Structure formats: structure tokens, C-alpha cells
Amino acid sequence: MGVVVGEVLERAVGRVIDFMRENIGDQFTLDDMARTANYSKFHFSRAFQRVTGVSPGRFLAAVRLQEAKRLLVSTSLTVTDISHRVGYTSVGTFSSRFRNSVGVSPTTYRQLGGFAPHIPMARRAGNTRTATVQGEIFAPACGTPGLIFIGLFPDGIPQGAPIRCSVLSRPGPYVLTSVPPGTWHLLAHSVALGRESVMVDSPFADDQALAVASSGPITIRPGVPVRHADLALRPSCVLDPPVLLALLDVRTVALGAGAAS
């Protein structure tokens, strides 16, 4: 898209994301979001997906769970109270979606202080015709990245159990092996050294501590043994979907340890 058109779309989508965060506990519709963007509902949905890589509904769900993560580690509110504050009417539905997206239950996430001891892996079908995804991760223009998580996910939000993942101690080459056939999104994120608490204390802050990168969708087909994809880390911005997967705890995970198995 042209520079001017792209900037207009980004500003409109940014207004809607601000609206989501400011009204996180309220029930609102796609029509409400489209009005905030000053677009028709149909045009808005396409514009939002174009700018963020995911649908408005999925982005909203991610924003709500990200706020829940913050409340779990920064307040003593009950899980039920938190679920209501972020727009859920059923604590059971909230808890299930939280576990599926973050990797642990709300209670466990609170007990762990917002960090995970390991990355859960998705079960892979017993398919012998797998492939390798490899390339290089480049450092962000500013700041020193900490552990770099890289994984393949079904969509553009880093949530749930990746189909394949690894952790790097520094920018450079990466290799993900035994990748099953399918269409995946390659996502990476890293928090600057010494700034890890940003992700649990103030995940919506305008802060360059979090660097992200993405590529895809990447289609893995039988008979194509290697796919190459480079990633350049950059500071996260308001238009990026929240990182829902619980970050590794650098206090207990040695630099260079891999999460792949």
C-alpha cells in the first residue's frame, strides 16, 4: 500500500486498539470498532487484518488476555474478578482460553510471577515427511536483546503451543527441524537485558524493551526439505498483537538453552 494510505490505515487501526484497551471490560461489537475507525464494517475488517496480520476479534481477545496477565501479577484480585474486568462473563471460559493462549492456568501464571520455566510444545502428527525452517535473526537497531524466542504458530499471534520453537542467546543463525506440513507463521520476540519485568508489569507501555519479528505465512509441503526465512527484530509498537505466550524466566533458564525437543 502507498505510504500515505498506509499511514491513514495505521492511524485508524491505532485508534481502535486504543479503544479496545480503554474499554477492555465492556461488551462491544465489530460495528463499534468500525465506527471508531470511521470505516464501514467490511472495509474496517480488511484494513485491520492488513495492518496487524490478525482479525479485530482475535486482536481484542489477545488484548484482554494480556491485561489479565498484568492483573494476575500486579494485583491480589481473584481470577473471577479479573475475568470480569477483562470482559469475560464466564470464569471457566476465561480460564480455558488463558491456559490455551499463555501455556499455563491463571493461578499457575500468578504463582510463577509471570514467567514460565519452559515453553510448551504442540503435539506433532507422526509424519515422516517433515522439513527444516532456517535462516538468520538480526538484532534490533537499538538496544541489546536478551533471550530470543522463535517459534512457528498457526496464526500471527504468539500464543498457545508452537509447532516448533527454539531459544537463542544472541542474534544469528537459527534452525527449526522436524517441521510438519502445514501453513505456519514464524514469530520471534525478545526482551532487552534487564527489562524483563516490562512484559508482566506494564505490557501496554510505549516501551522499546520488547523487540519482535515475523515472517509468513510459510507453507511446508512434502518434498520441500528446507525453507529459508530471515527475521529482523524491531521495537514492538501498538499495532503488534500482544505476546501471550508466557516468556521464559531468564533467572532459571541458562543462556543458549533451547526449548525445542
* CATH homologous superfamily (4th level) name of the largest domain: Homeodomain-like
Poorly predicted ranges: 251-261
Just give the CATH class of the largest domain. Mainly Alpha
Helix content: 25-40%
Average pLDDT, all residues: 85
- How does the major sheet shape up? 5 strands, antiparallel
* Class derived from helix and strand content: alpha+beta
Taking the alpha carbons of the first and last residues, their distance comes to 40 Å
Shape: globular
**CATH architectural label of the largest domain:** Orthogonal Bundle
Question: Could you describe the 3D structure shown?
Answer:
The chain is an alpha+beta fold. The chain has two domains: about 5-110, Homeodomain-like (Arc Repressor Mutant, subunit A, Orthogonal Bundle), CATH 1.10.10.60; about 130-235, Immunoglobulin-like, CATH 2.60.40. Helix content is about 35%, strand content about 25%. It is built from eight helices and nine strands. It has helices spanning about 5-20, 30-35, 40-50, 55-75, 80-85, 90-100, 105-110, 200; strands at about 130-140, 145-155, 165-170, 170-180, 180-190, 210-220, 225-230, 230, 235. The strands form two sheets. The protein has a five-stranded antiparallel β-sheet with strand order 3-2-5-6-9, with no helix packed on it. Strands 1, 4, 7 and 8 form a four-stranded mixed β-sheet that branches. Helix 1 (about 5-20) crosses helix 2 and helix 1 packs across helix 3. The longest helix is centred in the first third of the chain and has 20 residues, at about 5-20. The termini are far apart. The model is unreliable at about 250-260 (pLDDT under 50).
